[in-house]
Amino acid sequence: MDKNLHFELSQNTVFLKRNGSNCLSGTLVLCLGKPTRIRRAEVNLKGVFRRQPREWPVFNTSVSLLQTNILRPLYLSPGRHEFPFTIPLPLSRHMKETVEGVDGYAVFYRLKGSVAVSGKEISCSERIRIYHALELQTDDPVGVYNEWPQKIRYSIDTPSRYVPFGSTVPLEINLAPLTEGIQLESITVEMLEDQNLADEYFSNNSAERLVQSRRICERKFNSIKDLDFGNNNYYNNDYDNTDSDNGFCVSISLPTSLSAYSQDVMVGHLDISHRLIVTLFIRNDNHISSIRAAVPVVIYMPCANHVKDGIPPRYEDHMLDLPVDMSHLDRLPSYK
C-alpha cells in the first residue's frame, strides 16, 4: 500500500434497498510530489466467502478511471488529483451480506484502488460492509403464552420480533400462580445463535453441514432488586387471568462488537438465526423447578448515516427508563 494513494468515501457501509439504485461511491485520491507519468487508474470491489483455510469469490467488479495510450503518455503535475467513481451494486443473490463474528466463516468485501505510475503500480484498499436493509411493513409483538398444569400460567413478551444489532431487548413477564406455595426464585435470560454452515461454498449436501448453537450473552436476575415490578402500560398484553402485581420487566443488552456474533443471515451456505431463551426458576414447596421458553427474534443491522470504527450505533429502548415504585414490594410474587 502507498501513502500517496487513498480513498475518500461517503460511507464504508452500504445498505441495499429494494427500491432505488444501490451503489458504492467515492473518490480515489492520488498525491504527487513531482510530475509523474500515469498509465492507468482503476478501482475493484471483490467479495469473498471464507471457510478457513479456503476462500471462494462471490462478487468481483472493476471500474476504469483512467486509461492512456502507450504512444501518448499522460503526465500529471505535482499536487492532489481526484478520481471520482461509482460502482453499481446489484440486488441479487450474488450480493451476499457481510458476515463477521462466526468462527471459521466470513463474508467480506475489499475495495482496492490501483494506479500505474512511472513503470510501477501503487495501490490502496479499504474494507467495505454490505447489508440488506430491513424494510418492515408491520411489526407486532412476539411472545410465549403457556401453562404449567395446575401450577402456574405465564406469558413472556417482547415488543418486536426485530432487534437492532447491539441494542437492548426488553421483555415483559407475567405470572399467574394456580396453587399455593408457588414463588418465583430467579430468572435467566439468554440470547442464542443457531448456525447452519456449509462445509464447502458450493455444497448442497446436508450431511456436509455443521449445525450448532452458541450463547451470545446471558443475564441472571436473582433478587427483587434486579426486577422491575408494577403496571407497565407500554405493552399490549391480552393474557387473561394474569394478576398485574405479578407482571415485571427485564432486559438484556446485546454485545456491540461485530466480532462477537452475526446478524440473521439466510443465504443457503450460511444460515444464522437467533432465539431469546428465558428460564424461570419456580419454588414449589421447597422444591425448585424450571420453566424454559424460547422467543424467536431477528437481529438485523440498523441503517445509519455512518458507522463509527466499524461498529453500528447502539440503539437503546428507553421504555425501561420509566421510574417504578417498588416501595410496596417486600418479596417476589407468589400465590395470593
From TrEMBL:
Top-rank taxon, per record: Eukaryota
Protein family membership: Belongs to the arrestin family.
GO molecular function, one term: ubiquitin protein ligase binding
Domain Arrestin C-terminal-like, first and last residues per copy: 148-303
UniProt-recorded name of the protein: Arrestin C-terminal-like domain-containing protein
BP GO terms, sorted: ubiquitin-dependent endocytosis
Gene Ontology CC annotation, any one: plasma membrane
Organism: Penicilliopsis zonata CBS 506.65
Membrane-spanning residues: none
